[in-house]
Amino acid sequence: MKTLKVTLKRSIIGRPEKQRRIIRALGLRRINQTVEHKDTPNIRGMIHKTSHMLDVMEE
Q1: How do residues 4-52 score in pLDDT, each as one tens digit?
Q2: Distance CA 42, CA 30 (A)
Q3: Could you give the CA distance from residue 33 to residue 41 in angstroms, rounded to a whole number?
Q4: 4, 40 in Cβ contact below 8 A?
């Protein structure tokens, strides 16, 4: 199964609570932190909602 490397590139300060919760649910805590997730529709939806703060690489 494909994996996605997700990196937080922008701060969550001043962002709506819903976006903050999505970023936390992805496992991101600080800027430039990278996590790996399986490529599932749930994860894709979370990335789509917060794509302006993330950098995503497919493997």
Answers
A1: 999 999 999 999 999 999 999 999 999 999 999 999 999 999 999 999 9
A2: 22
A3: 22
A4: no
Angle at 19 between CA 18 and CA 20, to 5 degrees: 90
Cα–Cα distance between 30 and 23 in angstroms, integer?
A: 10
Asked whether residue 1 carries a pLDDT value surpassing 90, the answer given is no
For residue 23, give its domain range: 3-58
Alpha carbon distance 18, 32 (integer Å) = 21
pTM greater than 0.90: yes
